[in-house]
Amino acid sequence: MKYLVINASPIILFGKIGKLELLMMAGRKSIAPIRVVEEVKRKKTPETLALENALNNWLNTFDDVPNALMISSIMGEDIKRGEVDVIAKAHQLLRAGHDVIAVLDDKPARKGAQALSIPVTGTLGMIFHAVQLGTITPEFGIATVDELISVGARLDTMLVRKIIDRMSSI
After folding, report:
1. Would you give the DSSP letter of residue 121?
2. How many CB atoms lie within 10 A of CB 88?
3. Do residues 2 and 98 touch, judged by C-beta distance below 8 A?
4. Which of the residues 91, 121, 141, 163 could staple to 125 if both were Cys, CB 3.0 to 4.6 A apart?
5. Domains defined for the chain, CATH in brackets
6. pTM
7. Where are the beta strands (DSSP E) in 88-138?
């Protein structure tokens, strides 16, 4: 089976702009730790409603993962518990022979996942994948990046330029 294991920041960012469906990828089951869902639901914002709709339709959750404490001790204090759960679940699924992508934006968490050979993408990567797969047009992808910036998403400027250039050439 194929999975996307999703952290809070992509849910929050896509929820803010009403495009949470960009966390779906054809042929992959989208899952998020219950801790991440609870983190997003704590604040009553537009993304909370978007998350509720996703939970009722296509986003699944999971609870504690047996290797989370071990992963947490290896990763250190720079990585939050929701991120640890994403990495631990992705690692567990990968070891069981599944095709997994962890959706993480935080650099220390991404590096930790990559150290365990877990394929990683982030919010911008999900937009790029959607363009590559033909789910959205390059123009829609670029407009989505602009929307993220307009709602205050803290995105690496160099990465934004690179993604926009790559989308423009598709």
Report:
1. E
2. 26
3. yes
4. 121
5. 2-122 (3.40.50.1010)
6. 0.93
7. 99-103, 120-121
Q: What is the pLDDT of residues 21-50, one digit of tens each?
A: 999 998 999 999 999 999 888 887 878 888
What confidence tens digit (pLDDT) does each residue in 60-99 have? 999 978 877 777 777 767 788 899 999 999 999 999 999 9
Contacts 24+ apart (CB under 8 A), 106-115: 106/7, 106/9, 106/79, 106/80, 108/75, 108/76, 108/78, 108/79, 109/7, 109/75, 109/79, 109/80, 109/83, 112/71, 112/74, 112/75, 112/79, 112/83, 112/87, 113/86, 113/87
In DSSP terms, 30 is beta-bridged to 4
Indicate the residue type of 51.
Answer: L
Task: Inform me whether the pLDDT recorded for 161 exceeds 90.
Answer: yes
